[in-house]
Hints:
Two copies of one chain form a homodimer. By secondary structure, the first copy, chain A, is α/β, with parallel strands linked by helices. The first copy, chain A, is 26% helix and 16% strand. Chain A contains twelve helices and 19 strands. The longest helix of chain A has 21 residues.
Amino acid sequence: xxxxxxxxxxxxxxxxxxxxxxxxxxxxxxxxxxxxxxxxxxxxxxxxxxxxxxxxxxxxxxxxxxxxxxxxxxxxxxxxxxxxxxxxxxxxxxxxxxxxxxxxxxxxxxxxxxxxxxxxxxxxxxxxxxxxxxxxxxxxxxxxxxxxxxxxxxxxxxxxxxxxxxxxxxxxxxxxxxxxxxxxxxxxxxxxxxxxxxxxxxxxxxxxxxxxxxxxxxxxxxxxxxxxxxxxxxxxxxxxxxxxxxxxxxxxxxxxxxxxxxxxxxxxxxxxxxxxxxxxxxxxxxxxxxxxxxxxxxxxxxxxxxxxxxxxxxxxxxxxxxxxxxxxxxxxxxxxxxxxxxxxxxxxxxxxxxxxxxxxxxxxxxxxxxxxxxxxxxxxxxxxxxxxxxxxxxxxxxxxxxxxxxxxxxxxxxxxxxxxxxxxxxxxxxxxxxxxxxxxxxxxxxxxxxxxxxxxxxxxxxxxxxxxxxxxxxxxxxxxxxxxxxxxxxxxxxxxxxxxxxxxxx
Amino acid sequence: xxxxxxxxxxxxxxxxxxxxxxxxxxxxxxxxxxxxxxxxxxxxxxxxxxxxxxxxxxxxxxxxxxxxxxxxxxxxxxxxxxxxxxxxxxxxxxxxxxxxxxxxxxxxxxxxxxxxxxxxxxxxxxxxxxxxxxxxxxxxxxxxxxxxxxxxxxxxxxxxxxxxxxxxxxxxxxxxxxxxxxxxxxxxxxxxxxxxxxxxxxxxxxxxxxxxxxxxxxxxxxxxxxxxxxxxxxxxxxxxxxxxxxxxxxxxxxxxxxxxxxxxxxxxxxxxxxxxxxxxxxxxxxxxxxxxxxxxxxxxxxxxxxxxxxxxxxxxxxxxxxxxxxxxxxxxxxxxxxxxxxxxxxxxxxxxxxxxxxxxxxxxxxxxxxxxxxxxxxxxxxxxxxxxxxxxxxxxxxxxxxxxxxxxxxxxxxxxxxxxxxxxxxxxxxxxxxxxxxxxxxxxxxxxxxxxxxxxxxxxxxxxxxxxxxxxxxxxxxxxxxxxxxxxxxxxxxxxxxxxxxxxxx
Lengths: 506, 506
């Protein structure tokens, strides 16, 4: 390993630091082709100083200041986390809105996938019976019923791929009138109308809960509602769920895949277990794919407020209008306030794993995270759990927590997710396919049966960002068509729905 | 039904309202043996005025003011929810502490159960392999592994009753340094040492998460830790979990039930889906059983801050010392502040179902709820998720949410729960048995295969509070011994672990 050509990545010509590419890091004394010599060992993904830095000199990566030197740093030294001070975040009131709106990218035509067209015009990438719930109280009964449905009924309806219980921690013992309660409520409501359920969702409620189950019926069809307190004992509950499920399965079984334009895709982008490569390999490739999707007329959303906050000055110029800009600022301000209320701030992100992976602080992490958004204009902003109603690139405000963000993107109507990871996570969702992209080849090799696409080849020069971007785009079409199965779906590795409830529990 | 003898329950001689007992309620014109005549139909569980009330007159139930009359109310009228104004809660700074400490109840000796004695002195009522997790990210992998353990390994170890994955929404994407983060963290830590796991818990972690998995190892034994990011692919992860599980199963399989004194019980008390009968049938019977348990030297805990807050003036005199009193007030004040931070207050409780069941407001609900605590002195107070370390009656501060309270009581170390319900809930826990007690005979009849004990017989005079209390006490011993199975366990109806995280998500 130490006999390989030493390699670093400098992202922007202004940068005074670069990250070490070689797996296992590089030892003291390593000399790069440019003449730079390491004065100490530096781990993979961590930063080397490209020139001498005085104390308080800005440290620049992605052409942006990620912090200042906490002490003098000699050229060739390891710019270790503790040497990088955390700058203050961009002041929201001073940001230019829609000041540099990118021109529309050239349209990309002719790309299609085989999806399930729904009555409301949306398109599913899977054909799933969803059974939602108004309250956690019913989870045990529903879990029992779903097991029985899968054993006894599902095999009779081969066109239906799965039965998913949409259970969660909400519904009762919550301050349902508190202003922030709207977030978990609309999340539950909107997940039930995710395109992959084909408009056939059932609702199981208890009967005395705060979240009235009627609020979960998209078209007020109470025939889809099973209220446990109306039943005479457990067996009767079970029979109700089974017979209702069979009706829905029969209906879903008639769904057929049809050729749909790529514009029917609604793709959620996320990163988790990020490292210093995220921003130079996987995320730029995803950003390239995002541009392809936008060019093809699809809806693409990126998220994660705390991983956008410190780079938001790079986003506000890109919003299509001042109104969308104000929406973006509103979400940032809301989150600043939410964190402050809980005596925290955005420095609570990153994680220990991010830091091991070379990310010094949230500024560096954010700069690498927003690269997923590509280069197109930002057409709209969604509050947490709001449903997307337009095409193009959207900013869907969510926490950065992988599973919370995933849950909220489901509510926003994604029919596909692309997830980049540097440290590695087995993350998956039962409702939509998740394509996982590795930032490093070492992770791809290690997790060969969990990661779908390798973007680590970008760091080593084996592939370009554009090449991996096209691979991601084509893979999205194949997976959306049911022609290719993600590793998470192959093993059935699915995370729980994790609601974002900033309102109190009572 | 309307030919039955009309019956109402007046709890305290000072009361100027009483609740209707008859199933289906009573019609206008009904005349009670005492001469009271109903001037309108009143539903079951709802309140009748026993005398004329002027506007602003106090409405008295349980001998306490539950509100004032919002309008004049004639004798024989329905004291409907909107006629009862909500009083301000007791001012915490004015409450007498330890001013009327009950004398110790006479000891109750000779009661035993067959339990699993652990090395640390605690006693399990079940023999379960627990596999805990440091972060939601690993949930999919663990779920896959647990299914395989249950199919392939568990049958070889017949003395082990179950394998439980302790998955949750916490671990990453959270402000782990925020002051309130201690609550979810200690909850996860303490659940892993619940007596029913016999000190053999495994830990599955990812590797880059904020909640370092080492923090979940009770005795720092890293041999019990499986870190997914250290593995070469999914199959390798699976093999690790399987082989570690088999070692633990072999060890757990050697556990044997031995005769233990009733003092080894740690019983959590809860109510959920309450109605106006809760406070006169099931909760007093549970209170009587609580006294029996305290007399037998056991640990008993009651919880649910918002269902105690408005009746806390009846509890502060009962605490054993001023110090315990201040602990109790601290928990009340913390929760007042927590609700206020989220722009809510304790009036966010009760639920629509509570109200349908006759409970006008949180004051009436709280007065009925605290009856579960019986009559003994309050020996100690636990903050949410803290582990109990003493015998006697404890107040374990938790939200009133059934599933959140249940999760926190598991952390506090209960090896048994007793749960009263008026509206009916299929609530259950995988870790400890939950004995469910109905407040009304109609619920018992309707949910014959879900409710374990009927306390509705108290309302009709068929049984006394003491009789049902003894039934609960004996049932606890039988269930704890594995000689009787609760309905929830019979069907395997178990709720998810639902953590209380008042700190921000990032």
